[in-house]
Amino acid sequence: MINLYSTFSSAGFNISLKVLTKAAKMLGRLAPGVCVQVTMGVNQQQSRNMATLKAISMRLKSVKNIQKITQSMKMVSAAKYTRAERELRAARPYGEGSVMFYEKAEVAPPEDEPKELYVAITSDRGLCGAVHTGVSKVIRNRLSEPGAENIKVICVGDKSRAILQRLYGKHIISVANEIGRRPPTFLDAAKLANAILTSGYDFGSGKIIYNKFKSVVSYSQANLPLYSQKAVESAPKLAVYDSLDSDVLQSYMEFSLASMVFYAMKEGACSEQSSRMTAMDNASKNAGEMIEKLTLTFNRTRQAVITRELIEIISGAAALE
């Protein structure tokens, strides 16, 4: 049984049913036509509110489904990140050893060969923050400087190609696909190194641009040096290493390039997984906040519909008296 003295709350306002009953009876006695118009207006408002309730309900269901997806992706990325970090520790000596050779031999870019090659280490997958954008931004800034006509780019992953192709498509000479779906291996790096050496572009120096992993929530863009065999042969302190003829040097250059690409891919994969885990965590929190707001809006709108229905019933009963 409904207590006419109970109070309903609608959008922050307290409405007493007893007051509504007296007002509706008085309105019906004084102006029956006005009461009918009020009832018609309430019907129209009720229809609009019902449509609004349906839209809010659909939106609420959609956001809840998105939250489930982001939470699942966060858990998957956390497992992949643990594996990527473990593999990165084993891959660090490859890149650090190759860079140390260039530093000990004091290899420098040849002055008579201005051509440069930039290798962008990204992947094909998104939803990982600004991991791919940061690498592409470094190359984009370099291509906007003077002397960019002597620079060519090899994109490892579709994300860097998609960012650079619109403005600097003429600088891209090769693109590697199917990167990031599985953890990178040394075989993948060897294939990329072979593609770089057989690209037909005779460069004097260059850089491998990649994301260097720092912590779960931190990474930065770094680069590894690239040199041609001619630049290495003319290094002033190459004589420190014994028994280096042209064949041995060429073999080492191929292995060194594959090692640096492998190290850069491992660093990029670890940074990507940690960034995706953080991005999915933030997305899940944002979805939770949206669910709370939509639930509050849904309840307030539903309560307003109930209050208007009560007003309509009382107004109609008062008009018949």
UniProtKB/TrEMBL annotation:
Gene Ontology cellular-component terms listed: mitochondrial inner membrane; proton-transporting ATP synthase complex
Source organism of this protein record: Parnassius apollo
Keywords noted in UniProt: ATP synthesis, CF(1), Hydrogen ion transport, Ion transport, Membrane, Mitochondrion, Mitochondrion inner membrane, Transport
Membrane-spanning parts: none
Protein name: F-ATPase gamma subunit
Primary subcellular site in the record, as a coarse category: mitochondrion
Pfam families for the chain: ATP-synt
Molecular function GO terms recorded: proton-transporting ATP synthase activity, rotational mechanism
Subcellular localization: Mitochondrion inner membrane
Similarity comment text for this entry: Belongs to the ATPase gamma chain family.
Membrane topology of the entry: Peripheral membrane protein
UniProt key word Cell inner membrane: no
InterPro entries the UniProt entry points to: ATP_synth_F1_gsu (IPR000131), ATP_synth_F1_gsu_CS (IPR023632)
